[in-house]
Amino acid sequence: MTALNELIKTADWKSEKHVPVIECRDEVKADELFTVRVTLGKEIAHPNTTEHHIRWIQLYFLPDGAKAPCQIGSFEFTAHGESAEGPNKGSLYTHHEAATSVKTGKSGILLALAYCNIHGLWQSSKTVKVV
Ligand code: FE2
């Protein structure tokens, strides 16, 4: 049996265009909203075409001491130049970028999972400290 987690790849986002980049403050106040932005291809752009694009990004939070992550959000990118005239003939392209606000009473780890329709699943994480 192949487990899904064996298929999730990661790398340094500066050298691999598929790795999600999580941007937010390193330290936050307890129960105060802060913005989290997730994108990818920040250093090396990822294609956004009908044939090759990022389909979705999911964001999770694992509070310190927890055994399972909580899902913060799921962001779907559904326009990639599709058109009745053919692939990439449309004028609309959803960029693979998501932003949301969240608050937490505990420090923990943000985890992002991105899906490329050609190259599969990619993850990254970022520690957030409640001070
Ligand atoms: Fe890709």
Radius of gyration: 16 Å
Globally, the shape reads globular
Mean pLDDT: 96
| Percent in helix | under 10%
State the name of the first-level CATH class.
Answer: Mainly Beta
Compute the number of helices: 0
Walkthrough of the structure:
Helix content is 0%, strand content 43%. It contains no helices and 8 strands. The strands form 2 sheets. It has a 5-stranded mixed beta sheet, with no helix packed on it. A hairpin with a 3-residue loop joins strand 7 and strand 8. It is globular and about 55 Å long. It starts with 19 loop residues before the first strand and ends with a strand. The model has no long low-confidence stretch (mean pLDDT 96). The structure holds fe (ii) ion (FE2). The site of fe (ii) ion has 6 residues, from loops.
List keywords for this structure.
three-stranded antiparallel β-sheet, 131 residues, binds fe (ii) ion, Immunoglobulin-like, five-stranded mixed β-sheet
Question: Which secondary structure elements does this structure contain, and how are they paired or packed?
Answer:
Elements: E1 20-23, E2 27-28, E3 34-40, E4 54-63, E5 70-76, E6 97-102, E7 108-116, E8 120-130
Parallel strand pairs: 2-8
Antiparallel strand pairs: 1-3, 3-6, 4-5, 4-7, 7-8
The site of fe (ii) ion has 6 residues, from loops.
Short description:
This protein has no helices and eight strands. It is mostly beta strands.
